[in-house]
Design goal:
- The complex is a heterotrimer of chains A (307), B (502) and C (358).
- Chain A has 307 residues and is mainly alpha-helical.
- Chain A has a single domain, classed as ABC transporter involved in vitamin B12 uptake, BtuC.
- Chain A is built from twelve helices and no strands.
- In chain A, helix 6 packs antiparallel against helix 11.
- With 502 residues, chain B is of the alpha/beta class.
- Helix content of chain B is 33%, strand content 25%.
- Chain B has 17 helices and 22 strands.
- Chain B has a six-stranded mixed sheet with strand order 6-7-8-3-9-10, sandwiched between helices. A six-stranded mixed sheet of chain B has the order 16-19-20-13-21-22, with helices on both faces. A four-stranded antiparallel sheet of chain B has the order 2-1-4-5, covered by helices on one side.
- In chain B, helix 3 packs parallel to helix 5 and helix 8 packs across helix 17.
- Chain C has 358 residues and is mainly α.
- The longest helix of chain C is centred in the middle third of the chain and has 30 residues.
- The model of chain C has no long low-confidence stretch (mean pLDDT 86).
- Classes of the chains: A mainly alpha (307), B alpha/beta (502), C mainly alpha (358).
Chain lengths: 307, 502, 358
C-alpha cells in the first residue's frame, strides 16, 4: 500500500514537472501583458531540439540548453509580431503553435522511435532523500524537477519581491503609467515573451529527454494547451502554479488508477477546467473592474506614445 | 519659461508665454479648457517640445526632451488622471517611479522612506494598501509623495481638486503649504477661482494661448481674474428671433449621477427645457456636464432624482427607448461615440435609427432608402465628402460633426442634446452648426446645449445654467448677465438663486 | 543614423490589399521552401506533392472538398463572431458537442425511424449542441467581463473530456470490438455520400447555405449591422442603444451552431460513430480560425480559403505517403503563411519610411 502511494506521488511529480515549467514561463509572459498561445509549438520544438542534440552528441546539458534556446527563439517570432507589429495575439500564437508542431515533426522524422542513448539519472539529494516517504517522493527525482522548483521559487521571488518584477507586472497592468515613469515597456515585454519561450522549451526537453526518452510526433499531446489553462488556474501566480501543475499531473496519474473503482478518468480530467471557469466567474461576478488578478492589459497591443 | 510658443497643426496652443516661479511660491495657472495651460506644463515636463522659447532653471537654460530629463532637473508632475497601477500596492507603485530602489526587496526600503515623508509633511499613506482601496484624495497623495521621492523641487499639479471632496481639498492645501514652507515651488493648474485665491501667491492667466495676466493674488480681485479668463471680446450677436416657447419637453428633478471613478458627478440638478428654447449648460468641462448629458440620454445610470420627458418619467431607461421618444444626441467625443470610423458614411448616417422604418423592415435593412437618406443628409448639411461610399474616417472632423448633427436633427427631434458641438471645428463649420441649432429652435424643437464657449452660449441660448462641481451655480438669461458674472459662476465663486428658472 | 518611421496609412489603391495578400503568400512559400531545404527535403518536390496531392487528381480534389466542408461551415460561423470582435476559440468544443447531440439522436432514433426524419433531426440536434456550447461564453463576456478566449478554450477541454468519457463509458459500442467508439450509425443515420468519394453532400449543401445566409445576415440585416457596429466601435454601439447581450448571444448561437452542424456532418458522414474527440474534430476548430481570418471576414471568401486550407491538409496526407514525412509537416505551411499574412496586414495598415538622421 505504502509503495503504491509513494509511487503515485512520485509519478505525479514527474508528470507535473513539464507542466510546471511551461506554466512558469507563460505566467511571466502574460504578466508582462502578452498572451502567448504558442506554447504547444514551443514545447514541441524544445523537445525535438533537445532530443536531437542529446542523441547526436550524448551531452545532456547541451541538449537542455538547445531546448531552451529553441523555445526562446520561437517565442521571439511571436514577440516581434505581437509587440512591434501590433498583431492580434490570438492569431499569432496559433500560428506559432502550428509552425512549432510542423517544424518539430519535420526535424524529428529521422529520430522517431529511437530510444535515447544517453540516460538521464535520478539525483538523490543526500540526507533529504533518506526521509521516509517524503524522501522517496521529492528528493529522488531527476534534475528537471529540482530545476523547476528552483525556477519556480525564483520566479515567485522575482515577480513579487524585486524591482524588476514590479516593472514587469506594471507593463501588464498599465503600460502607459510604466512608460511615463521611464520604463521601457517594449523591451520588458520582448524579454518576458522570450523567457516564456525558454521555459516552454525546457519543458519540452524534459518530455523528450527524461519523460519518455524518445521522440514521437505529437509528443507534447496537448500539454501546451494545458499550460495555458494552468496559467489562468494559477491566477498568474508562480506559487499557485506549483499547486496547479502537480494537481493536473496528479489527475493524469490518478486517472487510470481510479478507473477500476468506477470513477471515470475523464470526469476527473474535466474538473480542473471547470474549476478554472468557476474561479473566473466568481471573480467576474464579484466586481467588474477587479479582474481576478488577470493582468489588466493582457493581450492589448501597446503603442508607445499613444495618448 | 520665456517666450514659449507651441502649435499643433493650425492651432496655436501657446503664444509667446512667459512664466516664472520662485522657490517657496505657489503659482496658479488659470484658464479655460483649451487655453493652453496643460500644453505649457507638458512642455515643462518634457512631454512636448516648444516651437520656440527657452526654459531656464536657476538662471541657466536647460533642454528638456523627455520626462526623464525633467525628473532629473527636479520637476515633478501630478497628472489629472493618476498614473497609478490599481492592482498594486502603494509601495509597489512608488518603486515603479523611484529608480534608486534596491533591486531586491525594494518594498521594504521604500516603506520606511514613505513613512518618513508622511511624518514630515503630515499626511498618512499606508504603503501596504492596494491602490484601488484608496480614495481619490489618498491616491493623489501617493502621486505627490512619488514626485517628492524623485527629488522634485518644483511640483506641477494638473487640476488636482477635480476629484477631491471638500475635506480632501483642505488636506491637500495644508500639504501644499507645508511643501511651500520647505522651499518647493508649486504650479497649480486650475479653473477654480476660489481655490486659486485661497492657496496661491500669484496667478497667471492664459486665454487662447496668450498670457492675459500675471499678478500677485493680493492685488487682484476674483472679478478681475474672471474677466482675464474669459476675455473681453465676446461678440454679442443677438440674431436670435423671438420664438414662442411651448410646453416642457424635458424636466430634470434633483438629479444625482455618479461618475466613472465613483465620485458624485452631478449633485442635485433641476431644470426644464421647453419647445422652441435653447437651454445651455456653460462651464468648464469636467464639472459634470458629460455625466448629465449621458444620464438624460440613457447612457448612464442615475443614482437618484428624475428625468421626465413629456410628462413621462424615463429615468434610467435604456438609450434606445429614449431615442424612440424623440431625444437625439450629439456626443461630446464625436469619433469615439458618435460614429463608427471604419464603416461607410451611409452606415453611419443611420446609426441610431437603423432599426426603424423606413430604414429597415422586419429583418432587413433597406439600403436604397438608406443611400438616398445619406445623400440627402450630405446635401442638406453640406458635408464635404467624395461620396456616401467613403469610409467615415476619411472625413475631416468638421464634416463628421456635420453628418452627426444632420443625422440627429433631420428627424425633427423633440429634444436635441448637443455636447460641445463646435469643439475643435473651424470657423465655417462652427458658424454653420450654430445656425442649424437656431433653425431647429425656430422649428419648435427643444435644444439642450453644453458648451465651454461663452460666445456660443451668448449667441444661442435663451437660458443657461452654469455648472460647477456637479451643481448649478445659477440659471440665467445670457443677455441679462455680464461676462464677469458668468466667469465667476464658471469658476465656482458665485451662486445665484433660481432667477430665470421655470 | 537610419531610423524607421512608422505611420498610419491614409489611403490606398483598391487593388493594394490583393497585392499585399499575394505577395505575403509568395513570401510565405519561399520561406516554407527554405525550411524544407534546411530539413533536407527537396522544396520543389515537396510543394509539388502537396498541391498535386490535393488538387492534381480527382481523388485529391474529392478529398479536398471533403475536408473543406467542416472548414467552410465553421469558418463561416467564425467570420460572424470575428466581425463582432468575439474571439471564438471554442469551435472545437462546439463541433464536438454538436457531434455528441447528433450521435445521441442517431443511436436512439436511427434504428427506429427512416432517414428523412432522422437526418434532419440530427442536424438540428447538432446545431443545438454547438449553440449550447457557444452561449455561456457570450453571457460570461457581456455580463461578467470574462475574456472569451479563455472561456471558450476552457469549454473546449471540458467537452473534449466529456466526449472521451462517453465513448469509453456509457456510449461504448457493443459491436466495436472494444474500441472506444459508439455503435455504428444505422443507414438511416448516415449521410449519403457522393458516389466514389467521401463527400457528404448534405453537409456541403448546408455549408453553402450557411454562407449565403451569413452573407445576407451580415450585410443586409439589422442584426448584421449591429454586429458590425459593436465589432468596429463598441462605444458607438452603446450610444446607438444596441443590446450587447442579445446581439452577442445570437452571434454565438449561430457561430456555435454552425460548428455543431459541422460536427454532425463529421459523425454522420465520415465516421458513422462517435469516438475520440481529436479524431472527430481533427483540429478543424482551430484551422477554421485561420480560414476565417484569411477570408478577410468575408463569408464568400471562406469558400476559397476553406478549400485552400483543406488542400493543404490533404497535401499533408499525400506528403506522408510519398515523402514519408509526418502529416504535421503541413502545419509548417499554415504557420508560416499565417505569419506572413499578419505581417502583410501590418504593412497594409502602416507606411514605413526610412529616414536619415544626422
Amino acid at each position: 500500500m505504502e509503495a503504491i502511494i509513494i509511487s503515485v506521488l512520485s509519478r505525479t511529480i514527474v508528470a507535473g514537472t513539464p507542466l510546471l515549467l511551461g506554466t512558469l514561463g507563460e505566467i511571466i509572459a502574460e504578466r508582462s501583458g502578452i498572451l502567448n498561445l504558442g506554447v504547444e509549438g514551443m514545447m514541441s520544438l524544445g523537445a525535438v531540439g533537445a532530443f536531437i542534440i542529446a542523441q547526436t552528441t550524448g551531452n545532456l546539458y547541451l541538449a537542455v540548453i538547445t531546448g531552451v534556446c529553441i523555445g526562446g527563439a520561437a517565442a521571439l517570432i511571436h514577440a516581434f509580431v505581437s509587440i512591434s507589429l501590433h498583431a492580434n495575439q490570438v492569431v499569432s500564437g496559433l500560428a506559432l503553435t502550428m509552425l512549432g508542431l510542423g517544424i518539430s515533426g519535420l526535424w524529428g522524422k529521422a529520430y522517431i522511435g529511437i530510444p535515447l542513448s544517453v540516460k538521464i539519472r535520478h539525483i538523490a539529494i543526500p540526507l533529504l532523500s533518506r526521509i521516509p516517504w517524503i524522501g522517496k517522493i521529492f528528493f529522488q527525482q531527476n534534475i528537471f524537477f529540482y530545476l523547476a522548483v528552483l525556477l519556480g521559487i525564483g520566479a515567485w521571488f522575482f515577480l513579487y519581491k524585486t524591482k524588476g518584477g514590479i516593472y514587469l507586472r506594471s507593463c501588464g497592468e498599465y503600460p502607459k503609467a510604466a512608460e511615463a515613469q521611464g520604463i521601457n515597456v517594449i523591451f520588458i515585454r520582448y524579454l518576458s515573451v522570450i523567457i516564456g519561450g525558454a521555459f516552454a522549451g525546457m519543458a519540452g526537453a524534459n518530455l523528450s529527454i527524461a519523460y519518455s526518452k524518445s521522440w514521437i510526433e505529437g509528443m507534447t499531446a496537448g500539454r501546451g494547451w494545458i499550460v495555458i489553462a494552468l496559467t489562468i488556474f494559477a491566477l498568474w501566480n508562480p506559487g499557485r502554479a506549483f499547486f496547479g501543475a502537480f494537481l493536473f499531473g496528479g489527475i493524469f496519474v490518478l486517472q487510470y488508477l481510479l478507473q477500476p473503482l468506477g470513477i471515470s478518468p475523464n470526469f476527473l480530467s474535466m474538473l480542473p477546467y471547470i474549476v478554472t471557469l468557476l474561479v473566473l466567474l466568481l471573480g467576474g461576478m464579484r466586481g467588474g473592474t477587479r479582474k481576478m488578478n488577470a493582468p489588466s492589459a493582457l493581450s492589448e497591443p501597446y503603442r508607445r506614445g499613444e495618448r | 519659461m520665456r517666450g514659449i510658443s507651441k502649435h499643433f497643426g493650425s492651432v496655436e496652443a501657446n503664444k509667446n508665454v512667459n512664466l516664472t516661479i520662485k522657490s517657496g511660491e505657489i503659482v496658479g495657472l488659470l484658464g479655460e479648457n483649451g487655453a493652453g495651460k496643460t500644453t505649457l506644463m507638458n512642455i515643462l515636463y518634457g512631454l512636448y517640445q516648444p516651437d520656440s522659447g527657452e526654459i531656464l532653471i536657476d538662471g541657466s537654460p536647460v533642454s528638456i526632451r523627455s520626462p526623464r530629463d525633467s525628473m532629473e532637473l527636479g520637476i515633478g508632475m501630478v497628472h489629472q488622471h493618476f498614473m497609478l497601477i490599481q492592482n498594486h500596492t502603494v509601495a509597489e507603485n512608488m518603486v515603479l517611479g523611484y529608480k534608486e530602489s534596491p533591486a531586491v526587496f525594494p518594498q521594504k526600503s521604500i516603506k520606511k522612506t514613505i513613512k518618513d515623508f508622511a511624518k514630515k509633511y503630515g499626511f498618512a499613506v499606508d504603503p501596504e494598501n492596494m491602490v484601488w482601496q484608496l480614495s481619490a484624495g489618498q491616491q493623489q497623495r501617493v502621486e505627490i509623495v512619488k514626485t517628492l521621492l524623485l527629488g522634485a523641487d518644483l511640483l506641477i499639479l494638473d487640476e488636482p481638486t477635480s476629484v477631491l471632496t471638500p475635506p480632501e481639498v483642505r488636506e491637500l492645501f495644508s500639504i501644499l503649504n507645508s511643501l511651500k514652507k520647505e522651499g518647493h515651488g508649486i504650479i497649480l493648474i486650475s479653473h477654480k477661482l476660489e481655490e486659486i485665491m485661497e492657496i496661491c501667491d500669484r496667478a497667471v492667466v492664459l486665454r487662447k494661448g496668450i498670457m492675459e495676466g500675471d499678478t500677485p493674488i493680493s492685488s487682484v480681485t476674483k472679478e478681475e481674474l474672471a474677466k482675464m479668463m474669459v476675455g473681453r471680446e465676446v461678440i454679442f450677436n443677438f440674431t436670435r428671433k423671438e420664438v414662442k416657447q411651448g410646453r416642457k419637453i424635458l424636466e430634470v428633478e434633483d438629479l444625482y449621477v455618479t461618475g466613472d471613478r465613483g465620485e458624485t458627478a452631478v449633485s442635485g440638478v433641476s431644470f426644464s427645457v421647453r419647445e422652441g428654447e435653447i437651454f445651455g449648460i456653460a462651464g468648464v468641462s469636467g464639472n459634470g456636464q458629460k455625466e448629465l448629458a449621458e444620464a438624460i440620454t440613457g447612457l448612464r445610470k442615475c443614482e437618484s432624482g428624475k428625468v421626465i420627458i413629456e410628462e413621462e418619467i424615463v429615468t434610467n431607461t435604456n438609450a434606445r427607448k429614449i431615442h424612440d421618444r424623440g431625444i437625439t444626441h450629439v456626443p461630446e467625443e464625436r469619433i469615439k461615440f458618435g460614429i463608427v470610423p471604419n464603416l461607410f458614411l451611409y452606415d453611419n448616417a443611420v446609426l441610431k435609427q437603423h432599426h426603424r422604418t423606413p430604414f429597415s423592415n422586419f429583418l432587413f435593412l433597406d439600403y436604397p432608402v438608406i443611400h438616398e437618406y445619406a445623400k440627402d443628409l450630405v446635401l442638406d448639411y453640406q458635408v464635404s465628402t467624395p461620396s456616401i461610399f467613403s469610409q467615415m474616417k476619411a472625413l475631416s472632423g468638421g464634416n463628421i460633426q456635420k453628418l452627426i448633427l444632420g443625422r440627429e436633427i433631420s428627424g425633427k427631434p423633440k429634444l436635441l442634446v448637443a455636447a460641445h458641438p463646435t469643439y475643435g471645428l473651424d470657423v465655417g463649420a462652427t458658424e454653420y452648426i450654430r445656425n442649424q441649432l437656431l433653425k431647429l429652435r425656430e422649428e419648435g424643437s427643444a435644444v439642450f446645449l453644453i458648451s465651454e464657449d461663452l460666445e456660443e452660449i451668448y449667441e444661442l441660448c435663451d437660458r443657461t445654467a452654469v455648472m460647477f462641481s456637479g451643481a448649478f451655480m445659477g440659471i440665467v438669461k445670457p443677455e441679462k448677465t455680464g461676462i464677469e458674472e458668468m466667469g465667476l459662476m464658471m469658476a465656482g465663486s458665485l451662486h445665484k438663486t433660481a432667477e430665470a428658472d421655470q | 543614423m537610419i531610423s524607421l518611421a512608422v505611420s498610419e496609412r491614409e489611403e490606398m489603391n483598391k487593388w493594394f490589399p490583393l497585392l499585399v495578400l499575394i505577395l505575403s503568400l509568395i513570401a510565405g512559400f519561399i520561406v516554407v521552401g527554405l525550411i524544407f531545404v534546411i530539413s533536407g527535403v527537396n522544396p520543389f518536390f515537396a510543394l509539388y506533392k502537396i498541391f498535386a496531392g490535393s488538387f492534381g487528381s480527382f481523388y485529391g480534389i474529392k478529398e479536398t472538398i471533403t475536408k473543406a466542408i467542416p472548414l467552410i461551415l465553421i469558418g463561416a460561423g467564425l467570420v460572424l463572431a470575428f466581425k463582432g470582435k468575439f474571439w471564438n476559440i471554442g469551435a472545437e468544443g462546439q463541433l464536438l458537442l454538436g457531434a455528441t447531440c447528433a450521435t445521441w439522436v442517431a443511436l436512439k432514433l436511427g434504428p427506429v425511424l427512416p432517414g428523412y426524419i432522422v437526418i434532419p433531426l440530427m442536424f438540428i440536434a447538432g446545431f443545438i449542441g454547438g449553440a449550447a456550447a457557444g452561449i455561456p461564453p457570450a453571457i460570461f463576456k457581456v455580463k461578467f467581463g470574462i475574456n472569451e478566449v479563455i472561456s471558450t478554450l476552457m469549454i473546449n477541454y471540458i467537452i473534449g473530456e466529456l466526449v472521451q468519457l462517453l465513448v469509453v463509458g456509457p456510449w461504448k459500442g457493443e459491436t466495436q470490438y472494444g474500441f472506444p467508439y459508439t455503435d455504428e450509425f444505422t443507414e438511416s443515420a448516415s449521410l449519403t455520400l457522393l458516389p466514389g468519394s467521401r463527400i457528404h453532400i448534405a453537409t456541403l449543401i448546408l455549408g453553402i447555405a450557411v454562407i449565403v445566409v451569413l452573407y445576407f445576415l451580415i450585410n443586409r440585416t439589422k442584426f448584421g449591422y449591429e454586429v458590425r457596429v459593436i465589432g468596429e466601435n463598441p462605444e458607438a454601439g452603446r450610444y446607438a442603444g444596441i443590446n450587447f447581450l442579445k446581439t452577442t448571444v445570437i452571434i454565438m448561437i449561430i457561430s456555435g451552431g454552425a460548428a455543431g452542424l459541422a460536427g454532425t456532418g463529421e459523425v454522420a458522414g465520415i465516421h458513422q460513430h462517435l469516438s475520440y474527440p481529436y479524431t472527430i474534430s481533427a483540429g478543424y476548430g482551430f484551422t477554421a480560425i485561420i480560414v476565417a481570418w484569411l477570408s478577410k471576414l468575408n463569408p464568400v471568401f471562406v469558400i476559397f480559403s476553406g478549400l485552400f486550407f483543406a488542400g493543404i491538409l490533404v497535401g499533408g496526407d499525400a506528403i506522408q505517403l510519398s515523402l514519408n514525412l509526418p502529416a504535421a509537416t503541413v502545419e509548417v505551411f499554415n504557420g508560416i503563411l499565417l505569419f506572413f499574412l499578419i505581417m502583410g496586414d501590418f504593412f497594409l495598415k502602416n507606411r514605413i519610411r526610412v529616414r536619415r538622421r544626422s
